[in-house]
Design brief:
Elements: E1 11-15, E2 24-35, E3 40-52, E4 55-64, E5 68-70, E6 85-90, E7 93-102, E8 107-112, E9 117-122, E10 126-128, E11 131-133, E12 136-138, H1 143-157
Antiparallel strand pairs: 1-2, 1-5, 2-3, 2-7, 3-4, 6-7, 6-10, 7-8, 8-9, 11-12
Length: 158
């Protein structure tokens, strides 16, 4: 995969070390690729806004490269199990949680360790929690997921 995922125009996710935001990932687009000198990437967030007087525009900033990763592949129609670690889309970002109950109608109860909250989500707002380690997703994609991700990627390029 190389460094293609952090080139100008690439969609990425960014974590934060700020208090209250640890454990969350926010989607962004790379505006300027990695500067070898500063080891930073200039990007624009999709859901975080900069408050500029009356106008609210997407936040743009330089971020340490260590806080940036490619967007994880989405698994369509994935069913989650009790105690499985997931990311839930909440408060404009993806937050790490754990499935504490499998409910009716594709709903799940998720517990967030960082905030000690328990919130219900539809499966479409959840994804399996994965870490980006040395250029690979952990846990790795299953064969079926890889085929779906590749099909989605080739469809989005056309």
């Amino acid at each position: 995969m190389g460094d293609e995922w952090c080139k100008k125009g690439a969609e990425v996710e960014v974590s934060s070390d700020d208090e209250g935001l640890r454990g969350s990932w926010y989607t962004a687009t790379v505006l300027r690729s990695l500067s070898r000198k500063s080891n930073k990437i200039f990007l624009e967030y999709h859901n975080l806004m900069a408050k500029d007087g009356k106008d609210s525009k997407p936040l743009r900033e330089f971020v340490d490269a260590i806080l940036v990763r490619p967007r994880p592949p989405r698994e369509l129609n994935r069913r989650f199990k009790l105690s499985e670690e997931v990311d839930a889309f909440h408060n404009d970002g993806w937050w790490e949680g754990i499935v504490t109950a499998v409910l009716d109608d594709s709903m799940y109860s998720i517990f967030f360790r960082c905030s000690r909250e328990q919130i219900e989500f539809h499966q479409c707002a959840l994804r399996l929690h994965r870490e980006w380690v040395h250029g690979d997703w952990i846990p790795p994609l299953e064969e079926e997921e890889e085929e779906e991700a590749e099909a989605e990627e080739s469809h989005s390029k056309s």
